[in-house]
Amino acid sequence: MKKFYALLLPLLGLIFVACEDDDPATNPDPDPTPSYTAGSANFSNYVAVGNSLTAGFSDNALFIAGQEASFPNMLASNFALVGGGAFNQPLMNDNLGGLTLQGNPISNNRLILLFTPDGPAPTVKDGAGSTEVSTKLSGSFNNMGVPGAKSYELLAPGYGSVAGVAMGTANPYFARFSSSETATVIGDAATQGATFFTSWIGSNDILLYATNGGSGVDQTGNLNPASYGRNDITDPMVFAGALDGILSTMTAGGADGAIANLPSVTDVPYFTTVPHNPVPLDQATADLLNGAYAAYNGGLLLAQSFNLITADEVAKRTISFAAGDTNAVVLLDEDLTDLTGVDPGLINMRQATAEDLLILPSSAFIGTLANPADPTSINGVAIPLADNWVLTPEEQLAIETALNAYNATIAALATQYDLALVDMNTKLAELNSTGFPQADGSVVTSTFATGGGFSLDGVHPAPRGYAIIANAFLEAINTKYGSNLPGVNPLDFTGLYID
Predict the structure, then answer these.
(1) CA 68 distance to own-chain centroid
(2) What is the chain's alpha carbon radius of gyration, rounded to the nearest angstrom?
(3) What does the buried/exposed string (b/e) look like for 258-267 if buried means 16 or more CB atoms within 10 Å of the residue's CB?
(4) 3-state SS assignment for residue 368
(5) Which residue ranges of the chain lie beneath pLDDT 50?
(6) CATH, range 12-272+394-492
(7) What is the pLDDT of residues 117-134, one digit of tens each?
């Protein structure tokens, strides 16, 4: 079946265009003696709070080059034009990105695009990561982005405990630079006395549910985050309380700031790259499969005759294959009527439709064998895909409902705390739908691997994508505070790390 390289082959010729150095002649420098003003804002001490998107996470890892291309670092370069001070980041030890704890690897290196005999495929970069979690960094840091953090975790004491990392209760990235074993992210951020701050937090409160195919629980109505699983959706009231605590702490000393809302998960290539119908079959194999599923399809009709399911559900669940390259995968769907009490063979399965979102890693799973000794046990064909591989429409609705509630809270608190509001939801939707034309005639889009907007993990931006994010922040800041900061040129940054 289709692997990553199969998805990428038609795009291979574009990769080098997206990553090549730009000709300075096509991107002339602006007026060499412009006059910039901070307006009413004071950028002398800028602190950024957030998660992996703030830290500069890219290609499924945090590494030096990615941190240097983080959007807060880009903002700081603009703020320096109007009195902004130094911007210190808790840099990793290398450009591999892998973490160790007591010498034992606990996270992978970053992804690179490996060119194999079968075609290009994202793979983990070789080498031993040299960033040891228990080796504490000294000093304070302006970039307080913590990969993996949920909103309420920024307020959690001990979230940067090395001992907690070993027990799975703390964050290894924050453990490297927390001020103590009992520190909170926001407490450490607040002690720096920021004159200006940015906040972009909340994506992980729904994203971990989404990237795991909706295999968590929607905790709406549960106000106790201590009872949540890692992949659960955070209750909107819990999110609202956490964000209010973050903003009240960061503004207590009179700091100005900007806060961004959250984008839709359907706008990132992790959910838009793998088609719902990637299965190629010849006529003989299609006939064989249809024969194998005949009993299941007949059982559905029998269940309908006893009024156990409707005709619409029978149509939704009926499985049929045909010769060709666009057969839909078979998947499990927990929202179908449970008929196993009547017939254990009538499990909750159906074929995918265009409304289902297959996650990016499913490309390398579909077509593999569930049992190597059984050549007919093909995942996604004879063996239905489990819940963690697909976001169904019902799961997407749960995400959208939470997202809308979170963004309403962000907008209300931006007004309450008199902050610039960055509409990242609209910005990234535009990146997905039309892209952003550049001065050299290229367009930065969300197309996986070649669009320049997103990295190889399909969730986190590539440097050019972070530049677009930085400019969205700067536009909102200029509007709110009367500054005229110039922004950054996405073409000054690579569209994809290729080694």
Answers:
(1) 19
(2) 24
(3) bbbbbbbbbb
(4) coil
(5) 1-28
(6) 3.40.50.1110
(7) 766 789 999 999 999 999
**pLDDT (0 to 100) of residue 121:** 83
Structure tokens at 454: 């997103």
H-run or E-run covering 123: strand 119-124
CATH 3.40.50.1110 residue spans of the chain: 12-272+394-492
Annotate 249-290 with DSSP letters as a single string.
HHHTT--EEEEE----GGGSTTTTSB-S--EEE-HHHHHHHH
Q: Report which secondary-structure segment, H or E, holds 429.
A: helix 424-433
Look at residues 366, 308, 380, 306 and name the one whose alpha carbon lies nearest to residue 338.
308
pLDDT in tens, 319-359: 999 999 999 999 999 999 999 999 999 999 999 999 999 99
CA 472 to chain centre: 18
Whole-number Å distance between alpha carbons of 422 and 479: 10
Alpha helix positions (H), 120-192: 162-167, 172-177, 185-190
Q: What would the two tokens of residue 370 be? A: 């569930």
The β-bridge relationship of strands 99-101 and 104-105 is antiparallel
* Contact (Cβ atoms closer than 8 angstroms) between residue 232 and residue 209: yes
